[in-house]
Write a structure and sequence with these properties.
The complex is a heterodimer of chains A (113) and B (110).
Chain A lengths: L3 E4 L2 E4 L5 E7 L5 E8 L3 E8 L6 E2 L6 E3 L9 E3 L8 E8 L8 E2 L3 E5 L1
Parallel strand pairs in A: 2-11
Antiparallel strand pairs in A: 1-3, 3-8, 4-5, 4-9, 5-6, 7-8, 9-10, 9-11
Chain B lengths: L3 E4 L2 E5 L4 E7 L3 E9 L5 E7 L2 E5 L2 E6 L4 E6 L8 E9 L6 E3 L3 E6 L1
Parallel strand pairs in B: 2-11
Antiparallel strand pairs in B: 1-3, 3-8, 4-5, 4-9, 6-7, 7-8, 9-10, 9-11
The chains are: A mainly beta (113), B mainly beta (110).
Chain lengths: 113, 110
Amino acid sequence: IAGITQAPTSQILAAGRRMTLRCTQDMRHNAMYWYRQDLGLGLRLIHYSNTAGTTGKGEVPDGYSVSRANTDDFPLTLASAVPSQTSVYFCATRQAVGANVLTFGAGSRLTVL
Amino acid sequence: KNEVEQSPQNLTAQEGEFITINCSYSVGISALHWLQQHPGGGIVSLFMLSSGKKKHGRLIATINIQEKHSSLHITASHPRDSAVYICAVGIIQGAQKLVFGQGTRLTINP
């Protein structure tokens, strides 16, 4: 593993199904983020975690949940997927909250039918 | 009005041209980021700056805190520079929050 690994790369999902997008990093960065990217809307923050054991809500948290049991993993769960959650999801990290560069995962393309 | 505005939204130029992409913001910031996203999706951080100017190869980023404006310049542009360039600002209240611009789609023709 080098940097951030997101899985799956792509997924088609039936509405109502539960789905977890995985994000794992090997850089020991404290802060982790989940964004969704939609055409015309740019990147929007779903949830964040400033350090292991803590999480917070971003701009568009409804329908999503996260956990941060350890430094490396930050999974994003859709409890009951809806078509409006069709998007590309990016996990990102920063060494610490504040003025540090962002590192992004390759993204997970999710289609909810 | 969006907190972060980029211009232009789309830019097409010929190889070798000098490129400027602009970013204006309306809030107090801790830092400003320039990101690059190539077709296929990967996002790479190009610069993070809170004052002055930074240079990396053919890329130059400047920021004017008083005018709340930043520019990304590309000298001697090349087709491989074709990508979407995204400006993002770190909001002072709540350092975890980044607000993103819509992006500028740059196409460099050979």
